[in-house]
Recover the amino acids of this structure.
């Protein structure tokens, strides 16, 4: 079954070396603490948009979406649509104001908006939990890829990703990360597009008949009902705008309007990218439905070129796909590690460069431990739950903080804690119950997100006297356009 | 390695900015700011609502009888619709929003500078 083991190892080595080379090249121009966090906000929009795309397209997008489409057909098409539409929501409600806030991280934003250290700490905790939960599926993806393509034990894959990420992040910080991520978007796109072109050519040339109809269900699992689809969309639409590694990228735009333009480019890049996992899923359903029965749905993208093309050509194309997969694990993991390290080092270690490096090691080591202890679920599904958690905690505080003057620190904390406990509880219960989980627990976003918003609003109303005196000034800065010379003013009082 | 505070680079235009902020915090300035925020929020809600309506219409469209049996280049039409049709809608919504948001800001800037 495995492709040629040497192919998998060579592909991983090539991506790691390329990542390291670009990372170290970036090191030479990364000098100050500001460079380390957000590349001093001087990244051109196309680079920045490619980097955002590179960072965002994770194991779930590269492997999981195609796998889920193979398993559940058109229902799974809501995943790529939701992942993309989440960026539209981010553009509409968050992009420009957040850039204008001048804060470097989400906890910085809550602290300056609510004038409260306590609200900052709770936000930091939520960010760290989201980041760790999000890294775990990346490491599961790496484990799966190494296992499927080389036959080596699973832990080799996750450990290798963590080691490469730590080396690059510790060495170069965000500046080199931006170059690395931008490169990895285009690598991921190529790695899916080129094999697909060859697959289509080979199928057309041999006039191969489809093994099964696209609508045929290969596993006999029950299809998703409307509740599941809606709840999933709530999670993806509102979860994206709270993802810590996505938000930190918006600080690299020079002003609010360019943050919007960058988001528009990102939407285009994502739309193009997601056509490919969709095509793999469809091809898998029609030409290799056996992979779903064999429990290898998540490996569909990795195995399809070898299956349908075969020979040395198939091996070469498999190597390209494996390289793209590792680019996905590396880029998302390093993006998350950078933003987590930013938060941990500022809140716990005092904000120095050395503290940032130590924090980066901590941010990567904890999820590695979690990945060893847990089993891989369907990749796209477990990432979907992380989006639900983000939508129930960070999303309400951002949306209400940006658009509602009445938000208080007490309200924000109450809402985040409620959303976190409800959604976290549903996730734990779902894990404990396994396959018998009722749908409302398996897809909790449809009720945990409204609950978090409601508690946040009601608790803020009940504590009206705590509305910070700085509200008017901060709201003005969030929403008024910058003047040409007045970019980059900090609102955080330190 | 010394401990350093992480702040954004100070701009040369800082004093001008402070006087501008003072003007914005005045009663009249706040009227303009509040109306800018209201119009931006209204715009975002309208675009989001419109997008969600179109999104909700897609599964209904895909359920049209016979669509799943028709094919273009071997791809069933319902797959084509759900798998590719929503992305252009996302892009167009984003483009419309960016244009209108910039226009709202230009109007605010004109008002605020005319005083």
């Amino acid at each position: 079954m495995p492709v040629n083991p040497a192919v998998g190892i060579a592909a991983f080595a090539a991506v790691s070396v390329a990542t390291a080379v670009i990372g170290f090249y970036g090191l030479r121009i990364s000098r100050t603490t500001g460079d380390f966090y957000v590349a001093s906000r001087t990244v051109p929009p196309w680079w920045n948009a490619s980097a955002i795309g590179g960072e965002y397209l994770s194991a779930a997008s590269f492997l999981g979406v195609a796998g889920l489409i193979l398993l559940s057909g058109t229902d799974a098409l809501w995943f790529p649509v939701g992942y993309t539409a989440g960026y539209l929501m981010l553009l509409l409600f968050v992009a420009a104001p957040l850039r204008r806030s001048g804060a470097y991280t989400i906890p910085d934003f809550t602290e300056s908006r609510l004038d409260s250290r306590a609200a900052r700490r709770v936000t930091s905790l939520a960010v760290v939990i989201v980041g760790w939960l999000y890294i775990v599926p990346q490491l599961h993806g790496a484990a799966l890829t190494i296992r499927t393509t080389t036959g080596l034990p699973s832990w080799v894959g996750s450990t290798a990703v963590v080691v490469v990420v730590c080396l690059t992040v510790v060495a170069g910080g965000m500046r080199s990360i931006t170059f690395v991520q931008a490169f990895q978007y285009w690598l991921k796109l190529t790695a899916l597009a080129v094999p697909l072109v060859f697959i289509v050519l080979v199928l057309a040339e041999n006039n191969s008949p489809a093994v099964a109809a696209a609508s045929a269900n290969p596993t006999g699992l029950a299809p998703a009902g409307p509740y599941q689809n809606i709840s999933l969309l709530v999670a993806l639409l509102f979860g994206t705008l709270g993802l810590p590694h996505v938000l930190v990228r918006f600080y690299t735009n020079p002003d609010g309007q360019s943050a919007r333009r960058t988001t528009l480019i990102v939407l285009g890049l994502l739309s193009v990218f997601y056509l490919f996992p969709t095509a793999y899923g469809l091809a898998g359903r029609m030409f290799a439905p056996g992979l779903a029965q064999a429990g290898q749905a998540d490996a569909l993208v990795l195995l399809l070129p070898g299956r349908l093309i075969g020979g040395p050509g198939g091996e070469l194309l498999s190597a390209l796909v494996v390289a793209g997969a590792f680019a996905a694990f590396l880029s998302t993991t390093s993006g998350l590690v950078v933003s987590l390290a930013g938060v941990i080092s500022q809140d716990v270690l005092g904000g120095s460069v050395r503290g940032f490096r130590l924090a980066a090691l901590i941010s990567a080591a904890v999820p590695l431990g979690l990945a060893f202890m847990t089993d891989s679920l369907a990749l796209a599904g477990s990432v979907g739950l992380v989006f639900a958690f983000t939508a129930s905690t960070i999303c309400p505080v951002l949306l209400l903080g940006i658009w509602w003057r009445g938000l208080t620190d007490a309200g924000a904390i109450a809402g985040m804690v409620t959303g976190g406990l409800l959604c976290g509880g549903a996730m734990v219960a779902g894990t404990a119950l396994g396959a018998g989980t009722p749908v409302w627990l398996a897809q909790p976003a449809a009720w945990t997100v409204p609950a978090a918003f409601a508690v946040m609003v009601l608790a803020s109303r009940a504590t009206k006297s705590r509305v910070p005196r700085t509200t008017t000034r901060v709201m003005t800065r969030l929403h008024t356009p910058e003047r040409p010379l007045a970019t980059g003013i900090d609102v955080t009082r330190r | 390695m010394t401990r350093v505070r992480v702040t954004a680079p100070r701009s040369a235009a800082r004093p001008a900015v402070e006087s501008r902020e003072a003007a914005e915090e005045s009663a009249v300035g706040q009227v303009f700011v509040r109306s800018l925020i209201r119009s931006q929020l209204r715009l975002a809600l309208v675009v989001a609502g419109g997008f969600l309506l179109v999104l909700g219409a897609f599964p209904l469209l895909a359920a049209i009888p016979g669509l799943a049996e028709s094919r273009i280049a071997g791809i069933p039409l319902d797959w084509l619709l759900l798998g590719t049709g929503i992305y252009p809608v996302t892009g167009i919504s984003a483009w419309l929003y960016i244009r209108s948001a910039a226009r709202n800001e230009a109007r605010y800037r004109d008002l605020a500078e005319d005083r």
